[in-house]
Write a structure and sequence with these properties.
The chain is of the alpha+beta class and about 475 residues long. The protein is about 50% helix and about 5% strand. It is globular, with a radius of gyration of 23 Å.
Length: about 475
C-alpha cells in the first residue's frame, strides 16, 4: 500500500465559492431587507451604547497599547477611541454583544447575525477616512448591504447545520460571514475572497464551554468581537497575497468536516438571498437569551394577574414551563449560578425576576440583585418539560416560532396559565415591535449623549434615504464622545 499523498491542488470547495460569489456579486433587491437592516443598525448600536455602562465590558475596550491613536483609524461609537480596523472591530463587536440584547437567528444553529457589524462598520469607517484606501466614498448604503449579506451567510448555514452539537460555538459563522463581506468592502477579487474564507475555516474554532455549566463566563460576551475582528485580519492578509487552502472543508482526515464536524458535509435549505434579514428576530423588550423571550413575556403577564388578585410570587407553589427542545438544551439550569453570564442563560432565573418584580433588565443579572434569596427559592419551584409541538413549530420554516407556556400553581389551588408563541421581536409581530424598537434606541442614546447629539443621530437614522446617502465616517462621527 502506498503512503504517498496526492499533492495535486484541488479546486476550491463549492461552499467557499458560493459564499464568495454571493458576497461579491449578488445584488440585494429586497426593500424589506434594507428597511429591516436600518432598524437592525439602530438597535445594534443602541445595544452597544448600553453596554458601555458596564465596567466588565469597557475594561476590555480601547487600543491594545494604552494611549495609541490611529489618525485615520476607525472610530468606536459612544467613545473617543480611534483604532486600527482589527482592534476597532473587536471593540464594536464586544460592546454590541455584551448584554445579549442584539438580534437573534434560531435554527439548527443559533446566533446573532448583527455581531458582524463589528467588522463591517470598522472596515467601512476606516476606508471612508483613508483616501488612499477608498477610491469612491463608502456610504451607509454599503454598510446596510454588507449587513444583509452577512446575516444571510451566517443564517443560511445555520438553518441545517448544528455546530453546537459537535461542541463548537456559533461565532465560527460570525467569522466566516464577516470575512466574506469585509472582502467585498475591501474590493478583493474572487480568488482572494476564497482564500480569506478558507483561512477562517482553517482557524481552530471556539468551544462552546464558556456558554454552559460548569464553565459559563464572560467570554460569551466578547467572543463575537473576537470573531469579527479575526475576520478583518484574515481579509487583510488575503489582500496582501496570503495563500488559501482550497479543500479546507472537504480534505480527507485534515479538513474541517473530518476534524470538526464528525465527517458530515454541510447541507443547505435555500440559496443565499435576503431571507435572514427579512426574518431576523429582534430583542425588543428584554435582554434575555432568545429561547426564553416568550417565557419572559408570559411571566410579565402572570405578574400582572397576580397583582390584580392581590397575590405575589410568595404565593406560588409550583411552576411548569412547557417549552421547545432547544430551550431545554441551552438554558434549563438548576443549582448555583456563578455570574451574570450564567444568569442570563438560565430560563428559571429569567422568569423568576419578572414574577417577583415585574421587570427584567440587564442590571437584574448583576450580583446585587441575584443576592435576593427569593430568586433561587422561586427557581427551585420550576420544572421544564418539552412540548413536542413547540419543537416542531420551532423548526418549521413557515412558522419559526419560539413558544413557551407557563403554568403557575398557587398555594390555595388556583392555577394561572399563559402561552406566548411568537415573541414581540418576531417578523409576525413587526408592526407591534418596531415602534418599541425605536423607543429602545432612543433610551440607549440618552444613556450616552446630550439632547442635541441625540437629535442629530435620530435625524440621520430615521430617514432611510438620508442615512443611505451618508458617508460612513460622517454617520459614525455622530456617535463620537
Amino acid at each position: 500500500m502506498s503512503l504517498h499523498s496526492n499533492t495535486e491542488r484541488p479546486a476550491p470547495d463549492k461552499v467557499l465559492v458560493d459564499i464568495a460569489d454571493y458576497a461579491l456579486n449578488y445584488e440585494i433587491k429586497s426593500d424589506l431587507a434594507y428597511e429591516t437592516a436600518r432598524y437592525c443598525l439602530m438597535d445594534t448600536l443602541g445595544c452597544g451604547l448600553e453596554a458601555l455602562e458596564y465596567p466588565a465590558c469597557t475594561k476590555l475596550m480601547g487600543p491594545i497599547v494604552p494611549g495609541t491613536v490611529v489618525p485615520q483609524g476607525a472610530r468606536v461609537p459612544g467613545t473617543s477611541y480611534q483604532l486600527d480596523p482589527v482592534q476597532a472591530a473587536f471593540n464594536i463587536g464586544a460592546m454590541i454583544r455584551w448584554l445579549d440584547f442584539n438580534d437573534t437567528w434560531l435554527a439548527a444553529e443559533w446566533g446573532h447575525p448583527s455581531d458582524n457589524l463589528g467588522g463591517i462598520l470598522a472596515v467601512a469607517d476606516w476606508l471612508s477616512r483613508t483616501p488612499a484606501e477608498s477610491k469612491t466614498p463608502i456610504r451607509m448604503e454599503h454598510v446596510l448591504t454588507a449587513m444583509i449579506k452577512a446575516h444571510e451567510i451566517q443564517g443560511c448555514i445555520a438553518l441545517e447545520n448544528s455546530f453546537n452539537k459537535v461542541g463548537l460555538d456559533h461565532v465560527v459563522l460570525v467569522k466566516v460571514a464577516s470575512t466574506a463581506v469585509v472582502c467585498q468592502l475591501l474590493r478583493l477579487n474572487l480568488v482572494q475572497t476564497i482564500a480569506a474564507l478558507s483561512l477562517a475555516w482553517v482557524d481552530g474554532q471556539s468551544l462552546r464551554t464558556y456558554r454552559h455549566a460548569p464553565n459559563t463566563g464572560s467570554r460569551k460576551s466578547w467572543a463575537a468581537g473576537d470573531a469579527t475582528s479575526r475576520a478583518v485580519r484574515l481579509a487583510l492578509m488575503a489582500r496582501a497575497g496570503e495563500m488559501g487552502y482550497p479543500s479546507v472543508l472537504t480534505a480527507k482526515t485534515w479538513g474541517f468536516y473530518d476534524v470538526s464536524f464528525k465527517g458530515r458535509e454541510f447541507s443547505f435549505q435555500r440559496p443565499y438571498g435576503s431571507y435572514v434579514m427579512e426574518n431576523v428576530l429582534f430583542k425588543v423588550s428584554y435582554p434575555a437569551e432568545f429561547h426564553a423571550q416568550t417565557a419572559v413575556e408570559a411571566a410579565m403577564t402572570l405578574h400582572a394577574k397576580l397583582e390584580k388578585m392581590a397575590k405575589s410570587a410568595a404565593d406560588i407553589r409550583r411552576i411548569t414551563i412547557r417549552t421547545h427542545e432547544a430551550c431545554l438544551r441551552i438554558i434549563d439550569k438548576k443549582g448555583p449560578l456563578a455570574n451574570p453570564a450564567d444568569r442570563d442563560h438560565c430560563v428559571q432565573y429569567m422568569i423568576a425576576i419578572p414574577l417577583l418584580f415585574g421587570r427584567l433588565t440587564a442590571s437584574d443579572y448583576e450580583d446585587k440583585v441575584a443576592a435576593d434569596p427569593r430568586i433561587d427559592a422561586l427557581r427551585g419551584k420550576v420544572e421544564c418539560v418539552e412540548e413536542s409541538s413547540f419543537t416542531k413549530d420551532y423548526h418549521d420554516p413557515e412558522k419559526r416560532s419560539i413558544a413557551n407556556a407557563l403554568r403557575v400553581e398557587l398555594s390555595d389551588g388556583t392555577v394561572l396559565e399563559e402561552t406566548v408563541e411568537y415573541p414581540i421581536g418576531h417578523r409576525r409581530r413587526r408592526k407591534e415591535g418596531l415602534p418599541l424598537l425605536i423607543e429602545k434606541f432612543k433610551t440607549n442614546l440618552r444613556r450616552r449623549f446630550a439632547e442635541e447629539q441625540q437629535r442629530r443621530i435620530l435625524d440621520a437614522s430615521l430617514d432611510r434615504k438620508r442615512l443611505e446617502s451618508l458617508p460612513v465616517n460622517e454617520y459614525v462621527d455622530l456617535y463620537v464622545v
